[in-house]
Specification:
heterodimer, A: alpha+beta, Glutaredoxin, four-stranded mixed sheet, 6 helices, 4 strands, 13% strand, B: mainly alpha, Glutaredoxin-C14 (chain A), cytoplasm (chain A)
């Protein structure tokens, strides 16, 4: 595949371009798979940054509710940047969105959606359903 | 000042003349009536005046009117004038002592030789009313002369200014003083009129300015904030203006809600009003968010709130759990299930508040560490990092406002329409009382009264959760 791309570079730029696009999409899919894999490992998964204070707020919210969460510090991950980009794509937003929380493998969102769910009263049933809360 | 002297000139001489020729002049007046006197007056104004002084009868007629007219200026002092000349003059001087301040200002050496043209002009400039008074006084004088009895002697003696005939040397000074006083009084009346007119015009201007301000405020709501149309106005000041306007709108909506509840409107109509009120709150949160992008400290520190509100501020606004607790205590006719729902809502918001507060604490700690850890020389790098961290404040404010917004919406979902309307009224009343408390407190500290120990303990506790809703006694809604 690589040799082909090199050989065809000067001759067929369009093909080369398409190959690049396809590769990027595969990488993205890899990333997405990776994220999905991570979030399915635990009932509540938080993607955060160790220096972000809003992430700390989200962690303390779950702690206060007595929920065990798995926290992924993206700034300490080698592929953290890419994961962050993936998350941004998931949330369909262009700004940095950390923290992002997944409950039961499903995307919940950023802090504001989490707070909205909590005030709604729909967060607790969701947690119970995911098995993160037993009371 | 010239006319001042003229004033003196006018009245000092004729007084001297007048009482001497009291009786003959009265007969003259009797014969000729008021019309003649007017003619004489016009003649006097037209003349260069020496004629008048020389012609005693004419002068008497001329001045008969004038002094009498000016005498009318002091209707409260008629009795003093008809004493004996000396006594009368004494009284006059006593009576006019109130004008002494004015007259002293107008004190000028008496100059008999000043040209009469000035005298004429002073007559022209004086009130037309005096002419009317003159005419009126003529008729009075006529009555007086005709009866010629003691009850009317007051007029006579008032005109005369004294009964004895040898008071002229004494009267000259007092007459001069009287004349000066009269002039001063006239001038002060004119000044007062001018001042009142000025006041009226500035009052009109003030109302116009207020209207302009209202218009500008309403236009300010549609201005692009970041565009900076009012670039010389700080965004904090603009937010204060916007908030004031929002408060007015709030009052209006609350009055509507109250009237709607009292009039027992249908549920649909009440729902429309409640939805409108929710949108009203959404609006203030939106504006706060926009302002926070420009000036987060102003919004978070609550510079736009009253003092008492600021005391209980939590991240730039009210603490939702406190409001819910107050509503639980103050609302009546709430079903058990609804109360349970409200307790649950309060619990959730408490957890969220706790989380946000902890996040904010960590932010503060991190900023402090960054700044404190900066080397003494060239700590620019740390400063940049600290500034970057402070940018997170806006995020916290947004989350806090989001929490408040969600709490209000959830409250409306939990309660019936009428209960929701009542709860909005309770909240509005609560904030109105907080604002009233602030102004009361401000005036109280001005009076420097002793602060009660209860209030001391309220304000010295560091935990701002200590607001006791039970202390607020609201009328039942």
């Amino acid at each position: 595949m690589n040799q082909e791309s090199v050989m065809h570079y000067q001759v067929d730029p369009w093909n080369y371009y398409m190959m690049r696009v396809r590769r990027r999409r595969m990488e993205e899919e890899d990333e997405m798979e990776r994220v999905m894999r991570i979030v399915s490992e635990s009932a509540v998964v938080i993607f955060s940054s160790s220096s972000c204070c809003m992430c700390h707020a989200m962690k303390s919210l779950f702690c206060g509710m007595g929920v065990n969460t798995m926290v992924h510090e993206l700034d300490q991950d080698s592929k953290g940047k890419q994961m962050e980009k993936t998350l941004m794509r998931l949330l369909a937003t262009n700004s940095t969105t950390l923290p992002v929380v997944f409950i039961g493998g499903k995307l919940v969102g950023s802090m504001d959606t989490l707070l909205a769910f909590h005030v709604n009263g729909s967060l607790v049933p969701l947690l119970k359903q995911a098995g993160a809360l037993w009371l | 000042m010239a006319s001042q002297r003229i004033g003196e000139l006018d009245f000092s001489e004729p007084y001297g003349i007048h009482h001497r020729i009291n009786n003959p002049s009265s007969s003259l007046i009797n014969d000729q009536g008021s019309g003649f006197d007017f003619g004489e007056l016009e003649e006097a104004i037209g003349l260069q005046g020496v004629k008048i002084r020389n012609d005693e009868t004419k002068a008497s007629a001329f001045f008969t009117g004038k002094p009498a007219a000016t005498l009318e200026m002091f209707p409260s002092w008629p009795m003093r004038f008809h004493q004996s000349s000396i006594g009368g003059t004494n009284n006059k001087s006593g009576g006019e002592s109130s004008d002494s301040a004015l007259s002293s200002k107008n004190e000028n050496p008496f100059e008999p030789e000043s040209p009469l043209s000035k005298k004429a002009s002073s007559f022209c400039s004086s009130d037309q009313l005096q002419h009317l008074q003159l005419q009126q006084d003529m008729t009075n004088n006529n009555d007086v002369i005709k009866t010629a009895s003691s009850p009317k002697s007051a007029h006579e003696k008032r005109k005369g200014g004294g009964s004895t005939s040898d008071n002229k040397p004494l009267d000259a000074k007092t007459l001069r003083r009287l004349a000066q006083n009269r002039e001063a009084a006239r001038k002060s009346r004119l000044r007062k009129k001018a001042y009142v007119q000025q006041l009226e015009s500035s009052r009109l201007k003030l109302t116009q300015l207020e209207q302009d301000l209202q218009r500008a405020r309403s236009q300010g709501m549609f201005m692009d904030w970041s565009g900076g149309v009012g670039s010389n106005i700080s965004s904090g000041a603009m937010f204060d203006m916007e908030y004031a306007r929002w408060l007015e709108e709030d009052n209006r909506l609350l009055t509507e809600l109250r009237n709607g509840l009292e009039a027992a409107l249908s549920d649909n109509e009440m729902r429309v009003m409640v939805e409108g009120y929710l949108c009203h709150y959404d609006e203030v949160f939106r504006v706060k968010g926009v302002t926070a992008k420009a000036d987060v400290f102003h919004v978070i520190n609550g510079g736009w709130t009253s003092q008492a509100e600021r005391c209980f501020l939590w991240i730039g606004g009210f603490r939702p759990s406190e409001i819910i607790m107050m509503l639980i205590q103050q609302l009546e006719a709430v079903a058990e299930q609804q109360i349970m729902g409200m307790y649950g809502l309060r619990h959730s918001s408490q957890q969220a508040e706790e989380a946000l507060s902890q996040g904010l604490d960590q932010l503060q700690q991190s900023v402090v560490d960054t700044i404190a850890g900066a080397p003494l020389v060239d700590g620019v790098q740390q400063m940049v990092v600290a500034v970057g961290k402070l940018a997170n404040l806006e995020g916290f404010l947004r989350q806090a406002d989001n929490l408040r917004q969600q709490t209000l919406h959830q409250l409306c979902r939990l309660l019936t329409v009428r209960q929701a309307a009542r709860s909005f009224l309770v909240i509005g009343e609560y904030y109105a009382r907080l604002r009233a408390l602030s102004s009361l407190w401000a005036s109280r500290s001005r009076d420097q009264t002793i602060i009660t120990s209860d209030e001391n303990s309220c304000q010295t506790t560091t935990d701002m959760q200590m607001l006791q809703p039970s202390h607020n006694h609201f009328s039942s809604f």
